[in-house]
Write a structure and sequence with these properties.
Structural class: alpha+beta
Largest sheet: 6 strands, antiparallel
Order of helices and strands: HEEEHEHEEHHH
Shape: globular
Strand order of the largest sheet: 1-2-3-4-5-6
Length: 233
C-alpha cells in the first residue's frame, strides 16, 4: 500500500516513474524541435525559389539560434520558435482534464513546450527592447510523440487531444505555414492620434532619434505614460 511506504521508497518510486518519464518527454521534444528546424529551412528555400524576381527585402531568412531557438524572417516580421527546457503538467482547470482518457492515464499528459512568437523585424534590427511581441501559439508534445497547439485558431491542431496529431513533417509544415500566414495578415495599426500627440524632449532624444519607439502590431507608439497634459489640443 502506498501509505505504508517509507519516504525513501516514495522518492525512489517517483524517480523511477515520473522523473524518468520527464526525461523521455524531453528527448521527444528535442527531437521534434530538430525536425521543426529542418522543415523551417526547407520552407525558406522553397519560398525563396518562388521569390527570385521579387525585392530581396521580402525574401525569407532562416536563423538557427542554438539547440532551443530558431527564427525565420518574413519581410517585416520575425517568427521565433523557442523550446522550453523543462517538462510540464497541466493545471487541474485545463480543458484536457475533461477527457476521461487523460484522467485515467495522467502520465501521458506530461508535455514539452515549443513556443511560437511574432515580432516586428525592426524591433530586433534596431534593438527596440521595449517593443512587444506576441505569442502566436505553443505546442505541447508528449511521450507518445503526439502534440496539440494552444493559441491562435488559425494555426489549427488546437483541440486539447494528443493522439490526433503526430509529430511528422507534414503536420509541422502545415503548422509553420499557418503561422507564416497569420503573421503576414496581422498588420501594424496606426496608433490613435490622441495617444501620440504629446511627447517630451527626453523621449525624442532617447527614443525617436535612436529608433527606440515602443512598437507592436496592436500597440503603436505608446506615449501615454509621458503625457504632461491630456487636455492640450
Amino acid at each position: 500500500m502506498e501509505e505504508n511506504k517509507t519516504l525513501k521508497e516514495k522518492n525512489i518510486s517517483i524517480l523511477k516513474e515520473t522523473s524518468r518519464l520527464k526525461q523521455e518527454v524531453y528527448d521527444k521534444t528535442l527531437e521534434a524541435f530538430g525536425l521543426l528546424k529542418n522543415i523551417l529551412q526547407e520552407i525558406v528555400g522553397e519560398y525563396n525559389t518562388d521569390l527570385e524576381d521579387v525585392d530581396d527585402r521580402v525574401r525569407l531568412e532562416f536563423r538557427d539560434r542554438g539547440n532551443f531557438d530558431a527564427e525565420i524572417k518574413i519581410a517585416g516580421d520575425v517568427l521565433i520558435f523557442n523550446m522550453h527546457t523543462n517538462i510540464f503538467e497541466f493545471p487541474r482547470n485545463h480543458e484536457i482534464w475533461k477527457n476521461q482518457h487523460y484522467i485515467d492515464q495522467p502520465l501521458i499528459t506530461y508535455s514539452g513546450i515549443i513556443n511560437i512568437y511574432n515580432f516586428l523585424s525592426d524591433s530586433l534590427k534596431y534593438n527596440r527592447v521595449d517593443d512587444y511581441g506576441y505569442l502566436v501559439g505553443r505546442l505541447f508534445i508528449n511521450k507518445e510523440n503526439s502534440f496539440f497547439v494552444e493559441g491562435r485558431r488559425e494555426l489549427g491542431f488546437n483541440l486539447p487531444v494528443f493522439d490526433r496529431n503526430n509529430v511528422n513533417p507534414e503536420n509541422f509544415r502545415t503548422l509553420i505555414e499557418s503561422a507564416i500566414a497569420y503573421a503576414l495578415k496581422f498588420d501594424l495599426l496606426v496608433p490613435p492620434y490622441n495617444d501620440v500627440k504629446i511627447i517630451n524632449v527626453s523621449y525624442m532624444n532617447d527614443k525617436i532619434l535612436k529608433h527606440q519607439m515602443q512598437t507592436g502590431k496592436r500597440l503603436g507608439f505608446q506615449y501615454n505614460a509621458i503625457k504632461t497634459n491630456t487636455d492640450v489640443k
